[in-house]
């Protein structure tokens, strides 16, 4: 008998967790159902402990590959193929070895009698929590093909938003890197050779030139050490942010910044609303959907706000009122949720809110990059101008003396 840890909800929507002994994950689900509990997540404790050391060996899929896989999967199921036939076709069409390995593993577990959700639970690095929860809801409702289509739409929108954000920031990043390389090249190679001529003439050099010489010498002597110290500080900061209290303060500071904070909040709201929309529309209980939505949030203050909202919903409050009291999410989302609860179309209003927030994030990203590009060029031009002035001032003074 193995020991399985579980998360489950009862008929009233109250969530519970604990352990249960069973021969298999399927048997553990049967035990929980016998207790009038609906399992959300089940994991073999021994397997989880062993997998922690082997996690880096687990196959992985790119986000774009997962989007394509889900879309093809949904189309095959909608065309009338059985789950086994669909997985066989997907495995044959898979281009990457990782995808083929995962699909064959899922197919073998389904042939062995496991549900699709149980088979996907064996690959948590491939299929995120929202993916598995949505599939479980589709299996339960008997509308797996429709639910998979909605899931594919959600994954594609999320991937498109991430790609647009990365593409928008690519040009400023390239400009910044090139500017730093040019400045370092000037300070470490060009400036010392040019300024050496003035030093040999024993001429009193202007302050700007002397400052440039000192900075150039510092960079050539200590530049590598400073770089190593900065890398060490970044690594130390990354390790320190593993502590929840420090990370919570860091996230709160980021969210409080004037422009960046609003953009981060909008991106998080887009993911949260999209997750709730797909899960609520698939028939997942609201408390379970909130738990899954909380897991997609990267900023701890927002995650804490969702946890408080879930407690309020459990006590009988509406979702809009519970989220509104946290004052962490945009008023647009709260109003859309209130309208959805009033009209009985919560999933549709959540999806609309996610689309509006995505459009807002894309527009703000365009504005930020539009401002960054000229600012970076001006900064680079200003630094080069200072270097040129520091080199030219002694030449100009010599010309005045010769006259």
Question: What would your notes on this structure say?
Answer:
- There is one protein chain.
- The protein contains 16 helices and three strands.
- It is mostly helical.
- It has three domains: 2-56, Ubiquitin-like (UB roll) (Roll); 60-127, Type II secretion system (T2SS), domain F (Receptor-associated Protein, Up-down Bundle), CATH 1.20.81.30; 163-403, Receptor-associated Protein (Up-down Bundle).
- The protein has a three-stranded antiparallel β-sheet with strand order 2-1-3.
- Helix 11 packs antiparallel against helix 12, helix 13 runs antiparallel to helix 14 (319-326) and helix 14 packs antiparallel against helix 15 (331-343).
- The protein is elongated and about 95 Å long.
- The model is unreliable at 49-57 (pLDDT under 50).
